[in-house]
What we know:
Elements: H1 3-15, H2 18-24, H3 26-54, E1 60-65, H4 85-92, E2 100-110, E3 113-115, E4 118-120, E5 123-127, H5 131-135, E6 139-142, H6 147-151, E7 156-159, H7 161-168, E8 177-180, E9 183-191, E10 196-197, E11 200-201, E12 205-209, H8 210-218, E13 225-230, H9 236-250, E14 261-264, H10 266-309, H11 311-319, H12 324-364, H13 375-401, H14 405-410
Parallel strand pairs: 5-12, 7-9
Antiparallel strand pairs: 1-13, 1-14, 2-5, 2-13, 3-4, 3-8, 6-9, 7-12, 8-9, 10-11
Amino acid sequence: MTLNYSLKTAIAGLKTNKSRSALTILGIVIGITAIMMVMSLGQGAQDLILGQIQSIGSKVVAVVPGRQPKGMMDALATFTDSLKNKDLEALSSKANAPYATKIMPLVFGSELAIFENQSYRPTVFGVTDFFAKIYDVYPEQGRNFTEEEVQSFGDVTIIGSKVKEELFGNSDAMNQKIKIKGRNFRVIGVLAKKGQSSFINFDTVVIIPYTTAQQYIFGIKYFNRLVVEVDSEANIEKTVSDVKRTLRDSHNITDPDKDDFFIETQADAIKTVGTITNVLTLFLAAVAAISLVVGGVGIMNIMLVSVTERTREIGLRKSLGATRQNILTQFLLEAVALTATGGIIGIALGSFLSFLISFVLSNILSVNWQFTFPFSAALLGIAVSAVIGLIFGIYPARQAAKKSPMEALRYE
């Protein structure tokens, strides 16, 4: 008996009870669907985060206050006041950081903005005029503030499109004054609708000079970040070393293990994000794979029931010359056919749902999310499905092959 004939016989056997076959593969379908969605959405999330990091610019490094977090409990360590104006002045000296072309202090927080009887709580960013170049955001209306306005604690602001909509509606916001913490700020620019970029939603921000933000809005004398632009990518490592040396001198630190700051580069961020997202994706895929094992057990149970129900059929085939190997092959092929079919359906369903979620995120929620078809997960899904069919189909197939023709024919 040829393999082709055994396959046709197996498919015919499955077709005799379509509803049972469909329910049998349900566990496999769910498992493969879950794996496809986890892998696809995991890759989409990784691409989104890496895109946010890369959008800042490859020649930019960030100096963050506090010790570098090594776990969840260290996250609060970054909220410190270790970066002061003396550090900004030291890093601005070409003698200390010769390859740094621009240094931008950054402070931020959430405050209530008011215009007449309308109010909205945006994120207030205190920066210099250099923010536009770093984040590639420029006013659609109006202008950026000047260095003179930064040094003179200017009461000027650039607002995001959402802030403009909430406070001014369809009215013109230019040269109007909004109140933040009792202080009036003249609107000199309105950003185009941009959404999330570099981990900042620029539609919901109010941007003011950092000097004004420190003095009148947050009442602080430290910075939340120092953003440094390097003249070329080749000098990033040298600049990182210069920044560390300068800040250690400024903070009287002799032991690097006691640094009260750390530096983030794009390469470091990309490596960290890639590691985290890959581990999370694999972990979730492993959890989803448990349903494949459950589905395999279900297939074994159903195949055992099928063997019992088809005892007379097995006896008849053996009496007509079918060997134990023929019966074993037939039932193994039935199990593999069930799991492979479940795998194909799971891949199609998982891809469709992933595409649907990506479409909703990108078109309805305005998140820069790209659909990714995980070819590796699809190939793995088919392979795993077939292997599960073999593993969990062996026992029922052997039980069928061992039946005696005479006893099988007498079975009622």
